Amino acid sequence: MSVSTRGKKYTCPSCSAKYYDLQKADAVCPKCGAQPPAPKPVRRVASAGKQSRTVFTRHR
User: Fold this and answer.
1) What pLDDT is recorded for position 37?
2) Which of 2, 10, 42, 56 is the most buried (most CB within 10 A)?
3) Domain count for the chain
4) Domain limits at 17?
5) Nearest CA to 20 among 9, 31, 12?
6) Is 46 inside any structural domain?
């Protein structure tokens, strides 16, 4: 089985077993039956636009 067909890798929060979801919709730990925690929402910070940058050069 190639790595791409295994799906996403998880670590069980209750028994610390490592397993793959095998590209199934519901990932359940094969050892204890626990479900992985829900993914945390991604927080994005708005950029302030293009910032000026001072470049120092060495004069000889």
Assistant:
1) 76
2) 10
3) 1
4) 1-36
5) 9
6) no
